[in-house]
Amino acid sequence: MQSRVYIVGTAHVSQKSVEEVRKVIREVQPKAVAVELDEKRFRALMGEKQEINVVDVVKRGDISTFLLTVFLSFLQKKLGEEKGLTPGTEMLAAIEEAKNVGADVLLIDRDLGITMRRFLDSLSFFEKIKLFFHFVKGMFEDVDVDELIEKDLTEILVEEFRRVSPNAAKVLVDERDAFMAYNLIRAAERYEKIVAVVGAGHKKGIERYLSKPEEIPSIPELLKVKKKRFSLAKAIGFAVTALFLLIFVTIALTLGLSEAREIFVIWFLINGVLSALFTLLAGGHVFSAFVAFLVAWLTSLNPLIAAGWFAGLAEAYIRKPTADDLYELTKAESLKQLMRNKAFRVIFVAAMANVGSMIGTFLGLWIIWEKYGVNVKEVIQALILSGLNPFLISKSLTF
């Protein structure tokens, strides 16, 4: 069957795009209308409540993925409201017109959860840190809509991510271009005429893959999510743990148990206070802050667990977020509304408790080094020469 595919590139917050989508579908009278959506986003757009367990998000450690998704949705909504539009209006228009002309609706985009996880996996440790601060900054900044409205939001993100991390741009755009092109090629085997409604930033890439389908990567590879692996962040965490324990043991053997107890108190208080403080700054309950205070000293010594997990679970126990909270999250129009949302509060508390604990870890090490005159280079050399024997280490160190 010979099939024709008409690609409409849209700006996600543009009334002009909505009108163009309607016009093209009416003129072409396609047998199918393909939209840049996956199943979950389609259901959310149609007003269905999403069944997401916030507690499971915290337990799985998917805090970054959740916050990133919320942030992108919030930014797009903010852009749309400046122009009196609801994000996704052009997709709703495409779905409505498809029904009017009797066309099937095809969901051709990759699952957003897979895209976000692959995106975060593509970032280095330092790029993730930079992304977090961009996230916090973006929540408080006004968006220059006049400058951005002519571009697709994806294009804006791509320009930034191609500069910061080419791999991130590859995941957000190039891979999705290939995935959507693959689905259009498959659809073309069944439908004579197809109108595809996608973001303007995807149009050229999809057209390129349609003209050269042999360049489309393996689809199973595009759907693969890496399992938790030994990352640089974990390596740094284990290094910090080893360094602290080494200093603690050598000071105990050299200066006595009273000094070692003092070090433990310093470590406990600095980690606990900062983790609790950041929990409160995130709008967390006092009980959640208390939990963060109690566990931060231990979680900072174990890269496999995080203070945010415990603070987030405590917050979930107190707030008891429901499916309605997740639904309302998609309607938030301001930072204040986000902060009032129970589901967002739980995840944000978990993230900020982790930030406080991380700062406390490095600040605690610095204070201990300064207070006891610890020469880190000397400690590491002693560690290597002693073969991890604390008694030999203590003999080779001076405080």
Structural class: mainly alpha
- Average per-residue pLDDT, rounded, comes to 78
Largest sheet: 4 strands, parallel
How many structural domains?
Answer: 2
Net shape: elongated
Taken as a percent bin, the fraction of beta residues is 5-15%
Low-confidence stretches at least 5 residues in length (pLDDT < 50)? Answer: 145-150, 390-399
- Tell me the number of helical segments per DSSP (H or I, 4 or more residues long): 21
Radius of gyration: 26 Å
Sequence of secondary-structure elements: EHEHHHHEHHHHHEHHHHHHHHHHH
Q: What strand order characterises the main sheet?
A: 1-4-2-3
Transmembrane segments: 235-257, 264-283, 289-311, 346-369
Pfam family, one: TraB_PrgY_gumN
Keywords: Membrane, Transmembrane, Transmembrane helix
Organism: Ferroglobus placidus (strain DSM 10642 / AEDII12DO)
